[in-house]
Amino acid sequence: MNTVQDISSVREQVAAWRDTGERIALVPTMGNLHRGHVSLIDVAKECAERVIVSIYVNPTQFGPQEDYAEYPRTLDSDKRRLRRAGVDLVFAPDDASMYPFGAEGMTRVSVPKLSSGLCGEARPGHFDGVTSVVCRLFGIVQPDVAVFGQKDYQQLLVIQRMVADLHLPITVVSGPTRREADGLAMSSRNQYLSEAERRRAPELHRALQHCARALRAGDRDFARLEKDGAAALAKAGFETDYFEIRNAADLDSPSSTAASLVVLAAGRCGPARLIDNVIVEL
Ligand code: PAF
User: Fold this and answer.
1) Cβ atoms 265, 242 nearer than 8 A
2) pTM passes above 0.90
3) Ligand 1 mean position to 223 CA, how many Å?
4) Topology classification of domain 188-281
5) Distance from first CA to last CA of the chain, Å, rounded?
């Protein structure tokens, strides 16, 4: 498994694989990899003969008060994990490769409707940073398939829409959310939690599941269910950004006859901003 920093090395390797008829799957990450990422790599391996993982902590998707500086950078242990996971190539670019003219005034890619609301409201500019960097990664690697986690559900839909709108010849595949034994979704940010916060954190998933059960049982009082979910999080000590029921396909507000819903929530548990969601097929 090679690790390369420059764009021409990735392109050369991808071209060589493609010449022999092999398909390429990309798993974009910001590093600090955990079992959740490994499960995305397993999905990628099912979709293509070659798997590339990118590791890049993208400055343009962090707000000024967010954790860009503190975000854990663990390239050496990440590489060991990726080798064990059977990854073919690691692409770990620096800022100058990703943003050769600097981030100010850069070409931006924006998916405005899906990016507004939910995490887009709590983190203004976040999704423009995500789409702008993912579009660059797609341009550099030119994968056949790209794999994203369902935990970042809004991000997944934003990227699917970007690919569709820009006619990019890439299949976006989602990987299921991996959870700890108590239901907490795996995330690099879980390590910011103190022991006491870690004990409270699974309440996020419990509140989502409670709401999902009510929906499956026929409850359609969305406003009350959202209020109850937010109250459960507040009781567990979360500073809640949102607890919302939306259409799974487009994140619009659902009608009472909608058949495919997603319940999404985000909030701060101590220093960690945690997000999670549950899909509810009715
Ligand atoms: O989900 C992430 O880790 C990031 O948002 C991504 C997709 C790698 C873009 O920086």
Assistant:
1) yes
2) yes
3) 31
4) Pantoate--beta-alanine Ligase; Chain: A,domain 2 (3.30.1300)
5) 44
Separation between Cα atoms, residue 168 and residue 34, nearest integer Å:
29
Expressed in angstroms and rounded, the spacing between residue 282 Cα and the centre of ligand 1 is 30
Q: How far is CA 174 from the centre of its chain?
A: 10
Write the pLDDT tens digit of every residue in 151-175.
999 999 999 999 999 999 999 999 9
Helices 222-235 and 203-216, packing angle to 10 deg? 160
CB count within 10 Å of CB 259 equals 11
145 Cβ neighbours under 8 A, 6+ residues apart: 23, 24, 25, 26, 44, 47, 48, 170, 171, 172, 173
Residue whose CA is closest, atom 5 of ligand 1? 130
Q: Which atom of ligand 1 is nearest to the CA of 130?
A: 9
Position 102, amino acid:
G
Counting from 1 in the atom list of ligand 1, the atom nearest the Cα of 152 is 1
Q: Could you tell me where the beta strands, DSSP code E, fall in the chain?
A: 2-4, 24-29, 50-55, 89-91, 145-149, 171-175, 239-247, 260-269, 272-281
Yes or no: say if 60 and 132 are a contact pair by the CB < 8 Å rule: yes
243 in Cβ contact with 262 (< 8 Å): no
Which residues lie with the beta carbon below 6 Å from any ligand 1 atom? Answer: 28-30, 58, 61, 130, 133-134, 152, 155
What is the location of CATH 3.40.50.620 in the chain? 2-175
Residues 6+ apart with CB under 8 A from 247: 253, 254, 258, 260, 261, 262
Angle between helices 126-141 and 7-19 (to 10 degrees): 50
Distance in Å, CA 28 to ligand 1 centroid: 6
| CATH of the domain spanning 2-175 | 3.40.50.620
Per-residue model confidence as pLDDT tens digits over 101-144: 999 999 999 999 999 999 999 999 999 999 999 999 999 999 99
